[in-house]
Amino acid sequence: MLGALRGDRRDVIRRIIGVVVLIAATVIAARSASGMADADTLTVAVVTVLAGSAVTLGFAVGPPVTASVDPLDPRRFAVVGPEPRPLAGALLVAGFLSVPVLVVLVLGISLAISWGAHGANALASIVSVVLGLATCVLFARVSMALGALVQRPRQSRELMGVYLVAILVVVVPVGVFLGSLEWRGAVPSQLASAAEILAWTPIGAAWGIALAPSAGAAVGSLVVAVLTVALLTLAWFALVDVLLTTTRRPVAVRERGGLGWFALLPGTPGGAVAARSLSYWLRDRRYLVNLVIVPIAAVVSMVPLLVAGVPFELAVLLPVPIMALFFGWLPHNDLAYDSTALWMHVASGMRGAPDRIGRLVPVLLISIPVLAITLPLAIVAHGRWAVFPAMVGVCAALFLSGLGLSSISSVLAPYAVSRPGDSPFQQPQRTGSGGVMAQGLVMAGAIITAAPAGWLTWQAIEGKTIDSMFALWIGVGAGAFVLIVGIAIGALLFERRGTRLMEFAEAT
Fold first, then answer.
1. How far is CA 182 from its chain centroid?
2. What values do phi and psi take at 117, rounded to 5?
3. What is the distance between the alpha carbons of residues 244 and 198, in angstroms, rounded to a whole number?
4. Is 349 left (phi over 0), alpha (psi -120 to 50) or beta?
5. pLDDT for residue 168 is more than 80
6. CA angle at residue 421 from 416 to 426, to 5 degrees?
7. Where are the bilayer-spanning segments (predicted)?
8. Residue 501 CA to its chain's centroid (Å)
9. CA-CA distance, 317 to 315, in Å (whole number)?
10. Is residue 163 predicted with pLDDT exceeding 60?
């Protein structure tokens, strides 16, 4: 901590100003937290869980986003030959001695004072603050350790673009949600529901113990918080062992520029496929046309429904699932777009799993932000946030299962497409119906997979909100299962059909 005050004068001045501002903000926030004793119990509980979850999430995502250098990086101590476990324990204890953790401690004590004014048990308050601090520290330790494993020598514009997209994915939906709430002198029910859900997640469980609405909820939050701390501790000890036994890749004295995504992604077969696919998706107009058409087609699908008399609040929910379906369907013929470049994969003896997974990275990076931004907007237009979890489940089932089935289709039934440089609207002649069958089967399979979640979502739309969370887990579970199975089958087919795929690429 004292070492931060050494170095260039300008840097030291900036750090001192930052610490002073942080102290002032902490004092104001602590006084506000202590002053919540006059508020009702529900308000204090909601504010506690939401603020605690935000702070904990900040400890988890802050280090990679800000590219922070870890002064307690385990590899700094490798020169003295320490044992991994004692070093991991010592560094974990030292992690509690930092300015951000001291700020959280002050705020936690201030919140505990407010909890006591609302009848919270003193032991529960102490346990909540201790587990909250431990969760924050462990998230920061694990996040920095993971960052050290994949750290690159420079921050590229591609990486900054990924960070910007990630921020949009989180900030826009949250902003839309908060902006849609009606504040009438009390905590909106939607905000209370969000706090109740966060109290059962790793980032908010510790902060939901003291003022839980029931003994069962308090025990549930306690169990989740303890499990989170235990799992993060195991992960930290494992990462320290890996960092001490892994040699860092040497950095060239003079780095070559212009590598783009190849400089950012890992130097593995899957990373190389992902980097090449990202370059294609963001530059090849054949891909760009598909990306532009999907949102337009989804919005246009509302018109027939509105003309037929379907209420707007129902019709507005349709475009997002359609986008999820088409985004999952897009890579169903991705091998055909490679043309003769496919020989690099086959000739190098690449395994099927890196090829299948790497090709899905561009679709995930592009589709998830679009869906994460448009879905809350659709829910605002619909007017009932209770159906939001169910809609997430339906979209996840359509999107993930589409990706899984596309991983099989692109290897099993590729069909000719326009060649590189040709107009994306120019379609070559086809002698068979394999392309039509492949497209139809992928879409039909995704719709069938999402049917249970869709039925539960319709029940939620009709007013049975108890089915909303169930639809979320059913949709995510079904989609993830089809995705994993699809990648496994597609990988096996890719390895067995390499010769046929080469013949197809040469013939088209």
1. 28
2. -70, -20
3. 35
4. left
5. no
6. 50
7. 12-30, 42-66, 87-113, 119-140, 161-179, 191-212, 219-239, 259-275, 287-308, 314-330, 360-381, 387-415, 436-458, 470-494
8. 33
9. 5
10. no
Q: d(Cα 160, Cα 143) in Å, to the nearest integer?
A: 18
Q: Is 97 left (phi over 0), alpha (psi -120 to 50) or beta?
A: beta
* Helices 41-66 & 157-179 angle (0-180, nearest 10): 170
Q: Measured at the alpha carbon of residue 9, what is the angle toward residues 3 and 11, in degrees to the nearest 5? A: 65
Q: Which residue has the tokens 């985004």?
A: 327
Distance CA(508)–CA(506), nearest Å, equals 6
269 neighbors 354 (Cβ within 8 angstroms): yes
Is 272 within 8 Å of 262 (Cβ atoms)? Answer: yes
Q: How many angstroms separate the first and last alpha carbons of the chain?
A: 63
| Predicted confidence (pLDDT) per residue in 60-72, tens digit | 887 766 666 677 8
Question: Cα–Cα distance between 377 and 176 in angstroms, integer?
Answer: 7
Q: Tokens 């308050």 belong to which residue?
A: 125
Q: What is the C-alpha to C-alpha distance for residues 351 and 343, in angstroms, rounded to an integer?
A: 13
What is the torsion angle, in degrees rounded to the nearest 10, for the CA atoms of residue 208, residue 213, residue 214 and residue 217? -40
Q: Indicate whether 152 pLDDT > 70.
A: no
Q: Are 321 and 398 a contacting pair, CB within 8 Å?
A: yes
* Dihedral sign of CA atoms 477, 482, 485, 486 in order: negative
State the DSSP string of 133-145. HHHHHHHHHHHHH
pTM for this model (two decimals): 0.64
User: How many Cα atoms sit within 13 Å of 280 on the Cβ side?
Assistant: 26
In the structure, what pLDDT confidence band is assigned to residue 234 with cuts at 50, 70 and 90?
very high
Structure tokens at 97: 């001695």
Amino acid code (one letter) for 25: A
Closest CA to 148 of 83, 226, 96, 91: 91
Q: Give just the sign of the alpha carbon dihedral 162, 168, 173, 177.
A: positive
